[in-house]
Design goal:
Structural class: mainly alpha
Number of strands: 0
Largest sheet: none
Oligomer: single chain
């Protein structure tokens, strides 16, 4: 059987969350569903909200200008003789 290192007491049923209690009551490994500071880290992680993906950053003004404009090369003035 495996427990989290920070498990309050692997031998006590009340040191496990409802999922861990159900597993232990069935004679099965609690699979790390232990209470740590009153919370089961495995359940908390499974129930954590999923953040939406971030949108790509808009291009910088210089990038937009370069992509949308023609590149104009400077012309040297004519040389007088």
């Amino acid at each position: 059987m495996w427990h989290l290192v920070a498990c309050a007491d692997p031998t006590r049923l009340d040191a496990h969350c409802p999922v861990g209690l159900e597993l232990l009551s069935s004679g099965v490994d609690p699979e790390g569903h232990c209470l740590v500071d009153g919370e089961c880290p495995r359940c908390a992680l499974a129930n954590a909200p999923v953040l939406p993906p971030t949108a790509p950053s808009p291009p910088l003004a210089a990038d937009t200008l370069a992509a949308d404009s023609e590149v104009v090369q400077p012309v040297a003035p004519p040389v007088e003789n």
